[in-house]
Amino acid sequence: MKRVVGWMLMVLLACGLAACGSQASSAGSEGDGAGDVDGKLEDVEISLWTYPVGNFGESATVANLLGKFNEAYPNIHVSIKYLQYSDGDSLMEEAIEKGQAPDLVLEGPERLVANWGEEGLMVDLSELWEEEEASQIYESVREACQHRNGEFYVFPICMSSHCMAINYEMFQEAGALQYIDEESHTWTTEGFIQAVRALVEHGQEQVGIVYCKGQGGDQGTRALVNNLYGGKFANSDYTGYDVDNEKNIKALQLLQGMEGIRFDPEAEGIDEISRFIKGELAMAFCWNISMEISQSVAYPERGFDIFPMAFPTNDGEPKLQGGIWGLGIFNNGDMKKIEAAKAFIRFMTMEEEPYKRAVLASSYWPVREVGDIYVNDALIKEYGIFNQYMGDYYQVTPGWTKARTAWWKMLQEVGEGVSPSKAVKKFSEAVK
Length: 432
Description:
seven-stranded mixed β-sheet; 12 strands; globular; 40% helix; D-Maltodextrin-Binding Protein, domain 2
C-alpha cells in the first residue's frame, strides 16, 4: 500500500485558499501603514525570481505567502517570475547581461554565493546575520552561506538531503530487498551490485540510468559516484576539485561495466524521474522528498511504493549532498528596492508564523529549531532520516558553474567508452 502524503494535503489546502495566478504580481492591499518599515519606505515595487524549490514553483503557494506579506507591508509590491532548472540559469544570465536582474532571488549558496556572489553582483546581507534569529541557524548552514571574503549573500529558509529511490515492488519480486537495510534506508556497494544483478536476472533490462544530457539533477550522479568507494568531489578546504582520484575512477569503472546500468546522454534528472515513476526503471538517483510529493500529485495512480534510500557505500557511512535554499538580493543600485527586499527577507525568515509557512511551502526542513512543524507526518519523518547522512556542502567551491558542465560532459565520455582515468583528467583540465 502506498504511503499517505499527509502534510502535502495540508499545504495544498492552504494553497487552495489563495488566489491563483501565473507570472502575476501581488497587488498591495489596504493596510494601516505597517509596511512603512518605521516610516523609511514609500511605495516600492520589487521583483522576485524563484527557482522551483519544493512548492515555491507553484503560483498558488507563493500567492498565499505574498498575501500574508502584503497584509504587513501593503506599500511593497512584489512581482514574481517562476524559473525552471532546465533554463533558469540561462534566463538569469541573460537578465544580468542586460542589467535587468531581479531584486530578489530564491535559490541556494551554489548560485548566490559561489556564482553571482563571486562575480560581485549580490548585496552583502551581513546585517541580517547579526540579528537574533540568525544566531539560531545551524553552523554548517551559516558556513555555506558565507563567502570567503566574509560577506553573506544568502539568508536561508530551508535545508534537505538529496537521496535516491527504489521501486519497492520491483525489488521485492526480484528478491533484491535482501540487499538493503530497510530500517536505516542504507545499503553497501556490494549490496547495490547484487541487487542490480538480481533485477537484471529477473528480466529488468534497465535498472537505472546515469543521465548526462546536462546539469539537471547532477547532484544524484555525483553522490552515486562519490559514495560507491568513498571518493570526493572537492578538496577539504573547498578551493578546488578532487574528482581525479582512484576512488572515483573505480566507481566510474564499475558503473561503466554494469549490466542494467546505462549512461544516457539524452536524459537529465527530470527525464530519469519520469521514467522511474512510470515503472520503466527500478531506481532513481535524482530524488528527495519534494520529488515524491510532486510525483504523487502528478501520478496518483502509480502502481508501486517508492522507497527512499541513501546511496550505496563501501564503508557503511553514506555522505549525501545537502541542499540549502534561501533569499539573496541583486545589487541593482537602488537603495529603496534593496531596503524593501531586506524587509521581505526579514518577514519570511525571522517572523515566526511566516517562517513556518515558508518552510512548509518548501517541503524541506527548517535551518533552525522551530519545533515540530510536521506533526504526525509519517512521510516527512521517513525522509528526515537522511539529514544525519549530510555530507560536505562543496557547492561553494570556486568555479562551480564550470565544474557542473565538466561533470556531465565527463559522464558522457565514460558512457561512450572512454576510460574513466582519462575522462577524470579531462575534467580536471576543464576546471582549472
